[in-house]
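Troubleshooting: if your tokenizer reports a length mismatch, compare your output against this known-good record of 756 residues.
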Amino acid sequence: MPSPNDMQAAISRMRKTIRRRVAVLWQHAYRARYRIERLGFRYRYSAFSTVLLLLISASVYLAPILQATLEPHYATEQSTAGLRSLILNTGSALIGAAAIVTSLVLFAMQVNIERMPHGLFRRLSADPKLLGSFALAFLLAIGVATLSTFVDQARLAHVLLAVFWAIVFILISFMYAYRRALVLINPLRQLRILIHDTRKELRTWTRRAQRAMPLLEREEAVGATSSLTDSTHDLARTTFFQVNSQWTDGAKRAIRHAMSFARRYAEQGDHEVSGAALNAVIGINAAYIESKGKTFYANTPFVDNPFSSDSFINDTLEHLRQNLQSGIARRDEQQVEQTLQTIAALVRVYLGIDYSSPYAPKSHAQLAAGYLASSVQAVVPHDMADVLLGGQRLMGQSAQYILTHGKPDDITALSEKIAFIACTGCAKKEYHPVTMEGISQLANLTFDLIRSRSHGIHFAVGEVRRDIALVAKLFLKVPDTPLSSSHSTFLGPYYSSTSTQSLRVRLTSLVNAILEAEPDNEDAKSVIQNIERWAEGLYQTEKELLLAAIQAKSHFTFDMIHWITGVTEILLAVSNAPACDHHSQNKLQEHARWLIAILTWIPDDKDTISFVENYQMTETLFEAALGAHSRGYDDIAKGIRKNLMSWTFKGGKYQTGWNILEKGLCGLAAFALLVGDEEASEMRTEIGTRLSGEGAPEQEIRDRTARAILERAGNLYRQGHWLSQIEVAVDKADHQKLRPLLEEIAGMLMGRSRSS
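Known-good structure output:
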């Protein structure tokens, strides 16, 4: 017999099963309802017409039965006259009703004239469907009245059926006119009608151009002989559009109407309609580009082409600029944001223009991008931080689209503007997030340039790097916060070594993918070459930033030190990839040497040394040397070891409390044993040279350091949880060799006092 607990468990499982099945049934019901509603919305007019036609057919089929039923009731002339009078009065009433409905609907249209542009009102008030429904109602009403003259005993059924269906169609006409009027005064539907009519007109002009091509073949042939570079342009259509310059008048008028909607409804606070109006502008531009086809000409830098300027595109961008100024004047942030989003969307639309040449610059997209940058810049003096944040994102996204569809050099103007706007955070505390967003967008552009398939990124990536350095150097002049460093926070999207969204972390993931690629992987080779181009000259800007951070005593110094060593490790890892050729390998290693050498430029004074060692400079250099050695780059590891030696004696001559001389010499000894006897011998020679040279540590510091090293040599076997990589290396080294080496180094430190 089952226990009570088993019974309760079974009941609980049964309840869960029932609830689950009920939930499944509800989901099936929701799906069925959605499908039925979708089918009903799609085929509602066809279904209604089919049902109406079936009813009319059925009434015609049943007419003899109706005739037989009515004949006994209207057997006398008096009864027939009464029926005739009824039909006549009904027809007269319907004529009056049609007049009243027509007046009311037209009055409603006139009342709404204030809500739409005058030109669009004239276009919609003459809507043929609306006027046609009124005309049909009048004609049917007159027909009903006229049918009274045909009433006799032999045609009773046909006359009554005709009157019945005429009344039905009059009511349908009234309902249709009412709904059509609602459609025409609805701004969203008006915009749909505007787009539909404009597309229809543009397609009409396209068909006219195609039909006129046989007449323009001779002109096309002549033009082809004079322009060999434009051989893929549609010259016949170009000629047709030049002759019929008025072909864009309707589209321009539609743009004016849409912009009028956008301004008017934005002023009223109805941003849903203003956004729909701006979307209409985008749709009209897309239809215009499709209709114009291969008749666009790019703006070349050395040749003045009169066909490169497009009045329709110029007018569109100018209307948007004016709309932006209107929003700024009223401090309507939502209107400004919608306008910026529209210009950014037009950048993507214009990137789809076919210039009939793969090498032609995307001049119209660049023009729109210039408008976007100028518009965002115009917002700067008006304390709209949120708008600036959104504007910078739009600029960054536009630059990424241009990079995908155009040339890398085309993004430099946007990059410069992003940096300029990001610099505003240096002057106003409220704009600090603007600086962070600008750095984030520039970091994204850098990463996209590195991943780009284009090989000509050298100029573009250099400009972006200089833009980042400009923003960072200016921002370092802002006082840093003591606890959470504002410098590290707001410059973190590019320089952080801990954020998962920073450039270094993304580069690390990219490099890991490259290391797994096959030697013949073309994509990996392209990325490697781009990394090499990005790293060229990188040490110049990073050295200036490191020194600026040290001068400002900023916590950003920590980020710079670890960013330099981290990128050095990335460059060495890439040079070790299977897809990396010999030339790129040499260049990457050279860039790594130059980059890590930045850490030797630390100013030689006590306060600076103490400040920098606060961020574990000795440990960082030691880890960098170990990383280079582990990857098999002994020459680079030797160079980093020399940097560590230089830093050890530069910082070791000051009493800073960080024991730089002791840690550095212990790390050098452990590294020398790891590399080999030759390295140990070279290390001894260099230590002796530095102890006997100028700027050597004072004897008191040497003696104290020697005693500490001797104490450490006597406790090599002690166990501990080491956080220091130098201590870890000392713990893992061959203690039989390390102890005499440390004792020898201690003896060299105390040598001067012994000789005395």
